[in-house]
Amino acid sequence: MPIQVTNLTHTYSAGSALQSTALHDVSLSIEDGEFVCIVGHTGSGKSTLVQHLNGLLKPTSGRILVDGEDMNGDKVDKKRIRQKVGLVFQYPEYQLFEETVARDIAFGPKNQGLSAEEIDRRVRAAMAHVHLDYDKYAERSPFELSGGQMRRVAIAGVLAMEPRYLILDEPTAGLDPKGRDRILGMIQELHREGRTTVVMVSHSMDDCARLATRMIVMSKGTVLMSDTPRAVFAQADAMREAGLGVPAAAQLCEKLRARGLDLPHDLYTQEELHAHLLRLWKEAAHA
Ligand code: ADP
Ligand code: MG
Question: For a 10 Å CB count at each end of the chain, is N or C smaller?
């Protein structure tokens, strides 16, 4: 059970007038090799949850185990656990601060006390992963780059730690379609290579439909559903109640069903819908 969250409750500003409980008794686990997409309406607790997975926030109550070790245990080496669980914040480019791209990416590995050669290897490998040419960009200032490139530098900084678990909080927020595709393609590649388990907070149901092996649907600080995209998107009403939609293909299915077309409830990708309609059309043509 690689990451296990048990009865996690988090209350911000406990005891003050601003006290608010963002997570209520949340239990879930992340298995090796999964690509988990976390979805939920704004304020449902997604960011609060993922910030517990690398120890940035401490539970008010409950536990987070990483490979069986209590993240917040007294004797645990927190630095070592954090190195296993890499967290890419929302708008991570705001945290860039070094004079050059290479130095920014090297920051984490340097803190780990790695040798100069190993740091250099990590920086080059991380830049290759985010498709930034080393010779062209290593010595540039990150602040001269485009928004999408800055975000890739920030993600490379986390990859350079070679985390086994990569957690990303809305990694495509605010990017144009091209920038979004680049980032998602890159995350998909990392996952496919098989070295990284991915947990990604997303607001795009279509991205979840395409990428997730499992979805966790949050609502008001609790886990409403945890299942395959197919099972989750078959619950269009429950998703609506949680303030969420379903992918475009599933929406179209609903409309077609409302007009009397007999379509299954678990179609959710464009390809599936296309294949299904084509079959119906062929049957009708041969009838
Ligand atoms: P999401 O990422 O799903 O939008 P968040 O985890 O950011 O949700 O927020 C969950 C709840 O916790 C919201 O009601 C939000 O207002 C509250 N919250 C988030 N961060 C803080 C904070 N630093 N202090 C107080 N309340 C917070
Ligand atoms: Mg958030």
Answer: C
